[in-house]
Predict the 3D structure of the following.
Amino acid sequence: MYTIGRNGLFGLQVIGVRKTYNELVIIRPAQHTDLDDLGFVAKVSYEEAFGRFFNDKESLEIETKERRSRSYFETVMDRDTIIVAQIDDSVVGYLQFGSPSEDIQDATDTDIEFRRLYILSEFHRKGIGSQLIDAMLAHENLMTARKLYVEVWKQNEAALGLYQKYGFEFTGQQRPFFEQGEIVGYDDLMVKYLNGFPNGSSF
């Protein structure tokens, strides 16, 4: 990691800088000053991708308020690790990971859950998702991890293809997702083995 000075970023810890389609993409840890931008990216990206599948607008608003808003990020900023992609002065995407949820079978304290990856649609297909995943995989928190979990909706072909490219495979587990307290579908859980696990692991 290193520091650079550009567009008011003096002194910020930067994970990577890459020029993508004539745009300079800065990959860096999220700051508390990013809370509004994180809430915006999460809400807009989720609504564009999944909003049409909700039965009513109220259910969608509840979902985005609870898990894709400034108030949500205020509660998780110090618990999870969040990495952002920035172009000019704007956050255009983020990746979030942390300790695995209790409902993941066979997960241990040494494992990691890759919770979310969102990028504003106008910046899709520019390699930003790969840059964020690369930054996560190089993070010190994954240096001793054995398994990295992520959930995916199988109809989200872009996400599924990206995760498979990185070596994620299906575990056979599913997670329900809810709308106003009722199960309306299931996501599939995927896993990527890390650091030689399960074969040749020193853990």
About this structure: The two ends are 27 Å apart (CA to CA). Residues 2-193 form a domain with the Aminopeptidase fold (CATH 3.40.630.30).
